[in-house]
Known about the structure:
Helices cover 20% and strands 29% of the residues. With 104 residues, the protein is α+β, with helices and mostly antiparallel strands. The chain has one domain (15-98): Conserved Hypothetical Protein Mth637, Chain: A. It has a 5-stranded mixed sheet, covered by helices on one side. The longest helix has 14 residues, at 52-65. The model is unreliable at 1-7 (pLDDT under 50).
Amino acid sequence: MADTSARNEGDLKPAPCILDFRVRPRARRTEVVGWHGGAIKIRLRAPPVDGAANDELVRFIAQRVGVPRSAVRILSGATSRSKRVSLVDVDRSDVLQALGLAPN
Length: 104
């Protein structure tokens, strides 16, 4: 019988990068503003109607970081300005650098 407790390193997936965001919908343009407490503050052009602001947040992060939209997921805060976002296959420092921020 094969030993299933041992796994190849290729089978292990890195933990997702989880970041907190504070968003302001209906802004003039979509942009990273800086930090708001421990959260990344982003202005979003889209209104908070029918998930448009959430869609724009996912699209903006994916585009800036250079990952597919499917790699970015809102974990909590779908109806709030405070959101927790998960990114797979990317390092936290790479995300912060892509967004033009220094680690907080």
